[in-house]
Design goal:
Layout: H1 2-18, H2 22-32
Helix pairs in contact: 1-2
Length: 33
């Protein structure tokens, strides 16, 4: 369970750094689920 939270936290952090292109990465992640 903790690994999932860390994974999500890492994704959110990367999206903040990526910025505008983060939306495309978010779409790819949603496709994985």
């Amino acid at each position: 369970m903790e690994q999932i939270l860390v994974f999500i936290n890492t994704i959110l952090g990367s999206l903040i750094h990526i910025g505008s292109s983060g939306s495309s990465h978010l779409g790819l992640l949603l496709n994985l689920f």
